[in-house]
Amino acid sequence: MEKQDLVVIGAGTAGAVAAAEAAKKGLKVCLVDVKAKGLIGQKVCGDAIAKHHFDNLNMKYPSGDEFEHEMVGIHVISPNRETSLSIRGEGVTGFVINRHRFGQRLVKEALDAGATLLDETRVIGPLIRDGCVAGIEAEQGDKGKVEIDASITVDAGGYSGVIRSKLPHAFGIEPTIKSEDMIVAYREIRSDVEWSSDLGEICLSQQSAPGGYYWIFDKGNGKVNVGLGIQMAGSHPNPKEQLYKHVLSQTPFKGSRMREGGGGIVPTRRPIDSLVSNGVMFVGDAACLVNPIHGGGIGPSMLSGKLAVETALEALEKGDASRGGLWQYNVKYMQSYGAKQASLDIFRLLLQVISDDDLNFSMKNRLVREEDVLWTSLMGDLRLSTKDKVERVLKGAGRPGLLMKMEKTASKMRKIKALYQTYPSLHEFDAWKQKVASIYKS
């Protein structure tokens, strides 16, 4: 194969969008995936995506066999299931999709634009020449190993980091993701369920889903996507066993049938500090670009694919695919969606240590309100006005520690968001990282 402008590893939402955007601009693009072409898009997923992601990317909404149900908001349930918050609004309106069909649409758009697909191809690692990623080494089943030279390599290969984990230290990329920053999840698609709702249901509970939550999303016609995620730190319980014990034992699931099931791992943390290095860019789960609270990654992954290609085009025109030449992708992503994700990462750390008793108390006494959850999910801020503080202190009498944790979390969220909104130049990057670390240590 002749040298490519871009080789994109992984034909998921991030990789397919990146390949399509690049091919539309006339670049030579090779899209590589370990799956057979017809299986691309089959992935363990919550299958939900907010409408605003399509609006921001000027993409057509899911339709036909991609579309399964409309979601107008989220129903957050307390651990004891006695209190709930119904969050509705523009930012949480969206779709429950057929993940396979949607993935097939994105790959078709990339191929129709002129990208080349190498399916059933496993990436072994990066080609490194003169301190720069110069493409990839891969294996094509019986055909053996193949090298694909490229001016820029885009890693959309998921959390495992087939490129990220094999880069020398000098590239300045975090090689691994800590287990406590990942969620292990199990989900099933079930039919014949006595369930019908245009609100997705999420329940936070340390007992049933330590450090995570479980969800129920209506897919229409008595079919639901139901799953449970658990923080991977320590000797965590089995998410499948927890799902069956705490969720599928509930009344709506009696007599239901499993259509498909499976597990997966999601990196639920802020983005890796830099999304680029010499000759390489990271998008989607490979860069930890998911919402740290609910693990939703389809929207930000597609955004990252688009923004990465915008910078790649500029870099190729200048003949500079160095870390500095690709740096603007960092700035574009971090100052937009990354700032929100970093702020929500701080909120995640609170949710992972707060007890079920405190959560039940907070929701029952409205220390946490619908507008708090909506604002936080949309903006990445937990804002407590002076009037709010007085009211909540009165309602939270007897639990000053809980209110102090909330206030400290709100303060740290503001600080980290401000840092990401002023994402630095390459020369100021090391100093910026130290400021980020100090906020997490405080």
Describe the overall structure.
It is a single chain. With 442 residues, the protein is of the alpha/beta class. The chain is built from 11 helices and 18 strands. Strands 1, 2, 8, 9, 10, 11, 17 and 18 form an 8-stranded mixed sheet that branches. 34% of the residues lie in helices and 25% in strands.
Give the strand tally. Answer: 18
Q: How much strand content do the residues show? A: 15-25%
CATH superfamily of the largest domain: FAD/NAD(P)-binding domain
Structural class: alpha/beta
Computed CA radius of gyration, to the nearest angstrom: 22 Å
In the CATH hierarchy, the third-tier topology of the largest domain is known as FAD/NAD(P)-binding domain
Residue share in helix: 25-40%
> Biggest sheet: strands, sense, closure?
8 strands, mixed
Throw out a few tags for this protein:
alpha/beta; 442 residues; D-Amino Acid Oxidase, Chain A, domain 2; 8-stranded mixed sheet; single chain
